[in-house]
Amino acid sequence: MITFIGNSVVRFLTAVTLPLLRLILLFVVREAGEKGSYSLSGQLHASYDFIVVGAGSGGSVMASRLSEVEGWRVLVVEAGGPPAAETFLPAFVPLSFFPGYDQVWDYTSTPQKHGLKHFENRIARIIQGRVVGGSSSVNGLMYVRGNRRDFDHWASLGNAGWDYRSVLPYFIKAEKYYGSSLGESERYHGRSGPLAVTPASPGPIFEAFVKGGHELGYSMVDYNGPEQIGFAVNQYTIGNGTRASAAESYLRPVTSRPNLHVLHSATAHKIIFDEDKRAVAVQLQYRGKIPTIGARREVIVSSGAVGSPKLLLLSGVGPRIHLQQHRINVVADVPGVGQNFHDHIDVYGLTWTVPFGASPRSLGLLASADVLSPSSLHEFIKSRKVLFPGPLTHTPVELLNAWVKVSRGGDPLWTDTQIFFNGFTAGADFGLFYPTLWGMDRTFFKEYYKEIFGREGFTIRPVLVRPKSRGSVTLLSRDPTRPPAIDPNYLSHPDDVATLVNGIKFSLALGNTTDFARTYRASFFKKPLRGCENLPNGSDQYWACYVRHMASTFLHFAGSCKMAPSSDPLGVVDNRLRVRGVKGLRVVDASVMPSVTSGNINAPVIMIAEKASDIVKQDWNELV
Prior knowledge:
By secondary structure, the protein is α+β, with helices and mostly antiparallel strands.
């Protein structure tokens, strides 16, 4: 009999096993033992020229680049601690999804009115990095810039300077690409930036994936080159066999600068304004005390699409009525703070099984059980190179990606769907962890997938990359230690459902292409979904029902401090990322995106920060 593991048990297992795992890995990953480089050197000053709140993908870049100006004293504040040993190794990427994992903010959404019917209490897990490096220290390592039309769209909304031609130099500036020459798309890549990017070494099933794409009319593509649509070799933020987080790429190399302080394990409670509405200080919680640190020039908020609007609201910048409800003094009535919140949404559960041994390698979730074997550890230590020496430097299952357009109308090259291929079935781990990690209802999961428990195969997940549904981040309390109310309002726009239905049909076509059908003898698991069984199986109505039951977050939150011209009532920052209604305050992270980019968001956030650091230097006449 299979026993499901609930959240409390997973939390207990995490708490028990993590210390042992970290102890083992400290002897393997030398970087993890150098935590002193992220510790405060010397005394915390009473004031700094710039305070950066959040040391994630945006904040790490901002702190590093601003501290290039020797005359500026810079403080970057991070709520989490230094990256733990396992975060350096791609093999341990799934740990960030385990309840109780101490390197993340493990929030939950409000119950979703329009979807998530087969998820516990109809809520989504809102996982964000709570560690130096932020989500770049715990994410899936994908380096995806987005579609060039994403940025041209930002500019068309009135955000001058954010078109693709203007932002491309900052992508190139950031990147240190380790692969061989990319031919015509080589000029779109950087070879000397701080951020290591390495192409994957695809497994045998990649060939079937690409052939399936060709069969459906798609070619191979460098999705970070001139065009995005097509099937691709993944590009990962990995260098020398380990994760290239924003912290490791930007902060660690410069922590010896005397004008830069990194303060981890410190939470920002609010921003202090003077009588002229200028941000002049940040109130922190640090080591049981509540110090207030002055900012002589600017405060830069880089706390992500959840944390940044929360901090602005706690500081009195936001919708007047909402602030007054929580008895917060209104510094600036900015209605857009916390609005326009949105996310990519992902359809789970579309699974194909293959006969035992038909796959070229084990594709199950437990395929990486040998990563801690003496041979794996020895291989990593002795032959650590750029291009993936051994299982520790690979993701534990095969992950493949394509970008396609599944809906009619509009620009044919502006993708609307990311096809995310996973080398395991939904029942591969016998239901021990899968439903808990994604927040699915365990009773439903056991009943629906029990027939394929332990089976080999693969899953194809269509991801909506240009959602129209919009939600919000609001306060539940003026208490800064309480999480905010996070409502992505998933599937509230009918076009999102329609596009995901088309994405499902594309996924079915891909999974049934010749190589998958003949070489792997793949068979789609077509059991009628509970709650949709009265609809004609395979009809658009059935798949729309499936979407409302089985779609949830892809963890790419954006938009809640929207960049927009003054004519947009929901704008929060201008095109120089300055917050409306106040002075000396900017936001630099995914929350400023008017609309989320068409893919994983780590790379565009780093680009935003690279550009923002130049903007700040220009505004203070210190561009170097």
